[in-house]
Design goal:
Layout (H helix, E strand, L loop, with lengths): L7 H6 L9 H18 L3 E3 L7 H5 L5 H7 L4 H21 L8 E6 L14 H17 L4 E7 L2 H14 L5 E8 L3 E2 L5 H8 L6 E8 H12 L6 E6 L2 E3 L3 E2 L1 E2 L2 E3 L6 H13 L2 E6 L5 H9 L3
Parallel strand pairs: 1-2, 2-3, 3-4, 4-6, 6-7, 7-12
Antiparallel strand pairs: 4-5, 8-11, 9-10
Bound molecules: zinc ion.
């Protein structure tokens, strides 16, 4: 199964200002990115909803009352409003696939804290409560599956899958972890431990994402050796370049030329040999990377 590549990083790369996830001012540009991924051969495209939750707005204020007092009108409902738009753009792009192809739309849910800061991750109960709200909305908007990505603790991943099951038992759930060398996720917990903890909840697939392409093969092998569920991977290419690194997670990417599409596709092929059945690209990858993977597909 071929996933798409980076969405947020591609929005920024195309010169769209990262505000409102690029959605309110540049909806057509966001839709074009989805369409380009569909044309490149993606079977699954992901919504522009990474960390698009009520919490990201609330976090900027002392509390809800404070936000109401000094925040812009409509802030409380902004995440919902943008999510509805984001899903509709992905759905339109998927519907336009043509040639009898069926392209699925994955409703993306990021971590509640920071993707690379497991120390800021919520407890399982908190995650269950807050992710349920996001999943309910994505499901209502017509997503075919939920993709929890950049999970960096086992507790949040568990709460997240429970939330999805609470909302709708028949909605497929994929869970992707940010991995680090040594078969571990960023919290230091093992991928095997993560797979074991999630097993009773029967997620439809387990993946790793947002690690450098060179580190993914080891993680895929560790994950594939720990579960009988479908395993997948999508790596980032290039290096994160803050200062735009706050509020929503949208750094620029530099040095992406170290992983041109053909090299990336070769790496992805190696992941499939280690057991990955789902591959795609994370931050910094483009429709060209997806096309290259599509071309080496067997
Ligand atoms: Zn990433």
């Amino acid at each position: 199964v071929l996933l798409d590549g980076g969405v947020g990083s591609e929005i920024v790369r195309r010169g769209v200002r990262w505000r409102w996830h690029g959605l309110r001012t540049d909806a057509e540009a966001v839709k074009k990115i989805h369409q380009d991924y569909v044309a490149a051969g993606a079977d699954v495209i992901s919504t522009d909803t990474f960390q698009l939750t009520r919490r990201i707005y609330l976090n900027l204020f002392h509390n809800l009352e404070h936000m109401r007092r000094i925040g812009a009108p409509g802030l409380e409902r902004r995440a919902e409003e943008l999510t509805r738009l984001a899903v509709s753009l992905a759905r339109e792009a998927a519907a336009g696939a043509g040639g009898g192809r069926r392209v699925a739309v994955a409703g993306v849910v990021g971590p509640l804290g920071h993707p690379f800061r497991p120390d800021l991750a919520p407890s399982a109960e908190e995650a269950r409560r807050e992710h349920a709200e996001t999943v309910r909305l994505l499901s209502e908007c017509g997503c075919d599956l939920i993709l929890f990505e950049c999970m960096n603790t086992v507790a949040e991943a568990e709460g997240a899958v429970e939330a999805a099951r609470d909302v709708r038992r028949d909605l497929p759930v994929w869970v992707s972890f940010v991995c680090e060398p040594g078969g571990r996720i960023l919290s230091g917990e093992g991928l095997a431990e993560a797979a074991r903890a999630l097993e009773p909840l029967a997620p439809e697939a387990l993946l790793v994402n947002c690690a450098p392409a060179a580190e993914v093969e080891e993680a895929v092998a560790a994950l594939a050796g720990s579960t009988r569920r479908p395993v997948g991977a999508y790596a980032h290419v290039g290096r994160f370049d803050p200062p735009s690194w706050k509020f929503e997670f949208h750094p620029r990417f530099v040095k992406t030329e170290e992983w041109p599409p053909v090299r990336y596709a070769e790496a992805a092929r190696a992941w499939t040999r280690k057991g990955a059945r789902i591959v795609g690209g994370c931050c910094g990858t483009t429709p060209d990377h997806v096309r290259a993977m599509s071309e080496v597909r067997t």
